[in-house]
Specification:
The complex is a heterodimer. Chain A is an alpha/beta fold. Chain A contains 8 helices and 13 strands. Chain A folds into 2 domains: 3-97 and 202-228, Periplasmic binding protein-like II (D-Maltodextrin-Binding Protein, domain 2); 98-200, D-Maltodextrin-Binding Protein, domain 2, CATH 3.40.190. In chain A, the strands form 3 sheets. In chain A, strands 7, 8, 9, 10, 11 and 12 form a 6-stranded mixed beta sheet that branches. In chain A, a hairpin with a 6-residue loop joins strand 2 and strand 3. The longest helix of chain A has 15 residues, at 114-128. The model of chain A has no long low-confidence stretch (mean pLDDT 93). By secondary structure, chain B is of the alpha+beta class. Among the domains of chain B are: 1-136 and 320-329 and 341-361, 2-Layer Sandwich (BirA Bifunctional Protein, domain 2); 156-232, no CATH class. Helix content of chain B is 45%, strand content 17%. Chain B has a 9-stranded mixed beta sheet with strand order 1-5-6-12-11-10-7-9-8, sandwiched between helices. A 3-stranded antiparallel beta sheet of chain B has the order 2-4-3. The mean pLDDT of chain B is 93. Classes of the chains: A alpha/beta, B alpha+beta. The interface between A and B is large, with 43 and 40 residues.
Chain lengths: 232, 361
């Protein structure tokens, strides 16, 4: 068996990951047709490429199905319980930057901090009879953040896409999502709270702490990390 | 996770002990409507409980404790006064403690009695103390009612008192609010700019979402009122800090709180109640002189307890959660009863921990 490296299977994240490895003498490539998720690794022995959706990489690392994987810090923290016991970050790759933020309608001129959000949530619940809704797909990270910030009287509603539109559509009062430039938020008349972002994420190379390794796989890992200039 | 026969047997014995003390055995559904619990405890309960979805009944929760269903049952049909016991599984997610079981038994005893709250507090504690006595546990006690009494007596606006009261169970937010209301932290720049503006809502952004312009205007109004209020005095904050710092054996804590109550008259009824409870505990044979008291005990972990609180810990096993815990939850009955209220106090034992400790003896 060979050392398994999980990489996002499409889009800019895949291309940039290929570039990052390529610049360090490890050539990753897709093989076969465009539709087939197969790949090759050149420049180091005993490593095979596994193309996966970026969202599945944390789970596969935690299950020990792959030894290494490239994915966003946000996904690792959201999807893995006690993430730091299951994976170890080896290198931040310098792309895929995004902040997980809380945003409210720009017309809420009285809300700029978590403190304000909490006070507004209390008044909202008293007025409307239900807890203020925050649309997100990052349930665990946001819940944790709001608990630490002492925010009460809110509820999370699931939104797997077009989250910025939920406020206008009256299915949420506020949102929590990943943003890189804030352009979409502004276009939807939302503003970001002024506190620090919930999380600053970027594409990161992780090592599984649970995947079993044969001697050959151990050797491949040593070779690969040396080539990449990392200490494994 | 299978619960062993030894634990089941011990749970049944513990429940029988409470029956012998006059409790009526009751049972509750394992599947509870999630909405009630979410409305009570907020979104955080999702990190501690299992939520599942039923297309017909909506979100359901595997019961994380018995308190809520027992209160509901009592309020619908119970005679007063009432004493209940139960023994059954509860289900808890253990994200931070994967070594702890997520399915385990709880044995509980709950008292609904209006007549003499101090007596009821003492009755519950004394029973737990007696049945757990052979394990040599350390008992911790506190009283959230003392803190709420001080807050309700603060010389400031009703809005500020209400904001503090809402966050009694969230120490960090509580402290941040106190610092703001006492002028220890300056207004954030955004707030200062908002208050300085003549037409803060004229910013050219369209109104979107359910929260209306009028609601926003009302909050700005409230913020303006608040900004015009004098800060809570340093003297009062120091007194509040002194109350929260009380951590001694009961007799010394009582003496200390009585001294502080000279300057905080609003706290006197709560301190009297503490004194009555000490006397009632003494009468029931509890060694009050050695019993620990901490004003803020249970403040972070026991939301909705609003009076006497207690926990029993294995001193040599700091890794274990409390072997038993409980307290008074009048506020919970007020919320669930939609207007009606019945003073209630109770507690639970985790029999698997009892068996584990007994096995090690």
């Amino acid at each position: 068996m060979s050392l398994k490296l999980g990489v996002p299977s499409k889009g800019r994240l895949m291309e940039k990951t290929f570039d990052w490895f390529g610049a360090r003498g490890v050539r990753l490539s897709r093989t076969g047709s465009d539709r087939e998720y197969a790949g090759a690794v050149d420049g180091v022995e005993g490593v095979s490429l596994v193309l996966l959706s970026a969202g599945e990489i944390p789970r596969e690392l935690a299950a020990g199905h792959i030894h290494l994987g490239v994915t966003g810090t946000d996904l690792v923290r959201e999807k893995l319980v006690q993430w730091d016991q299951k994976v170890k970050p080896l290198a931040e790759l310098g792309f895929g930057h995004a902040d997980l933020i809380l945003a409210v309608p720009a017309c809420w001129v009285d809300v700029d901090t978590l403190d304000d959000l909490d006070a507004a949530a209390a008044a909202f619940r008293a007025q409307h009879g239900f807890r203020m809704r925050i649309a997100t797909k990052y349930h665990r990270l946001i819940r944790d953040h709001l608990r630490q910030g002492g925010v009460a009287d809110y509820q999370l509603v699931d939104s797997q896409g077009a989250t910025e539109g939920t406020v206008k559509n009256l299915t949420a009062e506020a949102i929590a999502d990943i943003t890189s430039t804030g352009e979409t938020l502004r276009a939807n008349h939302l503003k970001i709270l002024q506190d620090e972002p919930v999380l600053q994420s970027q594409a990161t190379l992780f090592k599984s702490r649970v995947a079993q390794k044969s001697d050959a796989e151990m050797q491949a890992l040593t070779d690969l990390t040396r080539k990449l200039g990392l200490d494994g | 996770m299978t619960i062993s026969n030894a634990v089941k047997t011990r749970a049944a014995e513990l429940s029988r002990f409470f029956e012998d003390a006059g409790a009526l055995p009751v049972q509750c559904d394992i599947l509870q409507p999630a909405e009630t619990l979410l409305e009570l405890y907020g979104e955080d309960i999702r990190t501690r409980a299992y939520v599942t979805f039923d297309p017909a009944r909506g979100e359901q929760m595997l019961r994380p404790d018995f308190t809520v269903p027992v209160v509901q049952m009592h309020m619908e049909s119970g005679a007063e006064p009432a004493r209940y016991t139960y023994a059954g599984e509860v289900f808890r997610r253990q994200e931070d403690h994967p070594e702890r079981p997520s399915e385990y038994l709880q044995v509980g005893y709950e008292v609904f009695d209006r007549s003499a709250p101090a007596e009821a507090d003492a009755e519950v504690f004394a029973l737990f103390n007696a049945v757990l006595g052979p394990l040599g546990l350390r008992a911790a006690t506190g009283d959230i009612g003392i803190l709420t009494a001080v807050v309700s007596g603060l010389k400031t606006t009703q809005a500020r008192r209400a904001a503090l009261m809402r966050h009694i169970w969230r120490p960090r937010r509580f402290r941040a609010l106190l610092d703001r209301f006492s002028g220890r932290t300056p207004l954030p720049e955004t707030r200062a700019a908002l208050l300085a503006s003549d037409a803060p809502q004229d910013i050219g952004s369209p109104s979107i979402g359910l929260r209306s312009d009028a609601e926003i205007a009302r909050r700005i109004q409230a913020l303006r009122h608040d900004a015009a209020e004098p800060p809570i005095s340093t003297e009062e904050i120091d007194l509040l800090d002194a109350v929260m710092a009380v951590r001694e054996t009961c007799p010394f804590a009582l003496e200390n709180l009585r001294d502080l109550a000279v300057d905080l008259p609003a706290m006197r009824p709560a301190v009297d109640r503490f004194a009555d409870r000490c006397a009632a505990l003494q009468k029931r044979g509890v060694d009050v002189a050695a019993l620990e008291f901490e004003t803020t005990y249970g403040r972070t972990s026991m939301e909705y307890y609003d009076g006497f609180v207690f926990g029993f810990y294995a001193g040599h096993r700091p890794d274990l959660p409390p072997i038993a815990s409980g307290g008074r939850y009048d506020a919970l009955t007020r919320v669930l009863g939609r207007g009606t209220e019945i003073p209630a106090v109770g507690g639970v034992i985790r029999p698997h921990l009892v068996v584990e400790l007994e096995g090690a003896q």
